[in-house]
Give the backbone structure.
Amino acid sequence: MFPRLFGGGHAYLELTGEDLLDTGVSVMARPPGKRNSTIHLLSGGEKALTAVAMVFAIFELNPSPFCMLDEVDAPLDDANVGRFCDMVREMSQQVQFIFITHNKITMELSNQLMGVTMYEPGVSRLVAVDVDEAAKMVAS
C-alpha cells in the first residue's frame, strides 16, 4: 500500500525487542527520494499517508464493513490527495468509508455529503445531499 500511496518508496514494521509479548513496533518508512527513517522524522503529510497505508494494509488482511477516517487528508497536497482518493475508490468496493474532510477533492469522491451550516448566527443546521440525486436535478 505504501508504494501505491506515495508513488514509490518502501515501508515496513520492525520489532523493537526480543520478547514477543513485551516488544514494541517501529514504523520504518522511506518515501521516494528519501533515506530510511522512522515515522517521527517525516513531514506531517508523509506521516498521515504512512498511517493510511498501514490502516489500508490491515483492511486488506482483515476486512471490516466500514472504515471511519477523520481529516486524514488535511496535511496532504493535491497529488497525494488524488492517490488517497484513488485507493479509497478502489477499496470502497468492499468497505464503506465514512470520512470527515474539508478537502474539496475528497468530497468529490462521495456519494453522500453531510454537513453542518450556520444559516443564522447561533443556529446550526444539518445538511445532507445525495450526490446522484443532485446531479439528476441539475440535469433536468
User: Anything to note?
Assistant: The first strand starts at residue 10 and ends at 15. Strands lie at 10-15, 25-30, 37-38, 66-70, 96-100, 112-120, 123-130. The first helix runs from residue 2 to 6. Residues 5 and 87 are 8 Å apart (CA to CA).
